[in-house]
Amino acid sequence: xxxxxxxxxxxxxxxxxxxxxxxxxxxxxxxxxxxxxxxxxxxxxxxxxxxxxxxxxxxxxxxxxxxxxxxxxxxxxxxxxxxxxxxxxxxxxxxxxxxxxxxxxxxxxxxxxxxxxxxxxxxxxxxxxxxxxxxxxxxxxxxxxxxxxxxxxxxxxxxxxxxxxxxxxxxxxxxxxxxxxxxxxxxxxxxxxxxxxxxxxxxxxxxxxxxxxxxxxxxxxxxxxxxxxxxxxxxxxxxxxxxxxxxxxxxxxxxxxxxxxx
DNA sequence: ATGTCAACAGAATGTTGA
Length: 262
Hints:
Blueprint lengths: L1 E8 L7 H11 L3 E5 L10 H6 L4 E5 L7 E5 L3 E3 L13 E6 L4 E6 L13 H19 L5 E6 L12 H4 L7 H14 L1 E3 H5 L8 E2 L6 H4 L2 E2 L2 E6 L6 E6 L15 E6 L1
Parallel strand pairs: 1-2, 7-8
Antiparallel strand pairs: 1-14, 2-4, 3-4, 5-6, 6-7, 8-12, 9-12, 10-11, 13-14
The protein binds one DNA strand of 18 nucleotides through loops.
């Protein structure tokens, strides 16, 4: 049975519960992975989503920051949560579907402003997080697995509005791209979005600070859908719902979709 | 340095993080 999955950094699931509901109603993904819920789990308005046909929710949360959740119309059971770099943050949850597919939902640390771990602890934490990711998935290569989330890195030149102007901007520096690539390779992960859409500029995030985000279009592809090597061929129909960035009181991220024939 | 958001602490705005 094919299923469609979406990943979306919602930037407060309580404030934007109406937008989540709109996405569920209008697009109807089978599974929606959220990041930056910024809410303790017990304060996530799960009944709103349940009433829309998404009775299954697994989540990790904390007060004010981070937080990840998976909403599903298919039964999903928790399959652990990882705390890379020992941050003690709610940045990951894994779930398993009845067909045996595991879904990892990640919110990788943003990394602060200065791309130098000697002067910016947050940048060091981001690199350490990615190194731990590499080591974890390298230990035992995942199978029948999908990894999604806000990875806070735009790896390719055509994943940013200006490769040259962003080389020293956190999210597109070579050291971050290398760390992400190492995690990807160690786990045998494949970039489903770029397998589907190999050519051209592709963004999932536009800063709030731009006066006209749509016209300026200074975006970055920070949100990703990966598949383990054994199911890479099952992924298709990738798309980014850019329109959601223009909704009333939007998140600064747009949802990324993929369908899997599994 | 700036721009714009959101949550928190604690009672108005400043801080932290993105």
